[in-house]
Specification:
3 helices; 4 strands; 98 residues; Alpha-Beta Plaits; globular; 36% helix; four-stranded antiparallel beta sheet
């Protein structure tokens, strides 16, 4: 299994609204993006210099599934929205034995 973790920091303009919208759009990919096995999305409640606003954890059968997800049109629409409202993102991808 491949695990894909993304952390997102949002721009100050309409921050709360954009975080909620991003969460909804991300969760709406379930069942619409074939290689996506599961996705968990959380909105951060902690303050601090190192804090990010939103985290997502997605799971795929293999690296090929992650690669297909990256170019899927539904996913690309979500990415376009996030790019328009995010200051920056961080990502970690790894293989899990589960």
């Amino acid at each position: 299994m491949v695990v894909h973790i993304v952390l997102i920091a949002f721009k100050p303009e309409n921050r709360i609204e954009n975080i909620r919208e991003a969460k909804q759009r991300i969760e709406a990919m379930v069942g619409r993006v074939a290689p996506l096995r599961s996705i968990e999305v959380g909105i951060n409640f902690a303050d601090g210099e190192r804090a990010m606003d939103l985290a997502l954890i997605a799971r795929f059968d293999d690296r090929a599934g992650l690669e297909a997800y990256a170019v899927d049109p539904v996913h690309r629409e979500v990415i376009d929205f996030i790019k328009s409202v995010a200051e920056y993102t961080k990502v970690v991808d790894y293989e899990n034995e589960e």
